[in-house]
Design brief:
Blueprint lengths: L1 H22 L2 H4 L2 H24 E2 L2 E2 L3 H14 L4 H17 L3
Antiparallel strand pairs: 1-2
Helix pairs in contact: 4-5
């Protein structure tokens, strides 16, 4: 029962957050600073999430096969490879490093 209460509270919170977003006046959202922030914030949050998930386990920072896979993906991205090639490079390098004992 406790989980369903948590689900209901979370759903209500999401609904209220959406409602608050709809209540913001349009002229406040059209300012250049707000538009720039709205464009850059998702990228920054995704980068932070990727770094946190790649370089940490619990409360420790470590470099393991995930970091090698991320480096391979970054290299493929810098070479302007298609998305599936980027993902494939990351998967293959990560699996290779793990197979070698890393």
């Amino acid at each position: 029962m406790t989980i369903w209460i948590a689900v209901a509270v979370t759903a209500a919170g999401c609904y209220l957050a959406k409602l608050l977003g709809l209540l913001v006046p349009a002229h406040a959202l059209e300012r250049p600073t707000v538009r720039r922030l709205a464009a850059l914030l998702p990228v920054a949050l995704l980068a932070a999430l990727t770094a946190q998930e790649t370089f940490s386990t619990g409360h420790q920072v470590l470099l393991d096969a995930r970091a090698a896979g991320l480096a391979a993906a970054a290299l493929a991205l810098a070479l302007r490879a298609p998305f599936l090639v980027i993902v494939g490079a990351a998967v293959l390098v990560t699996a290779g490093v793990r197979a070698l004992g890393g």
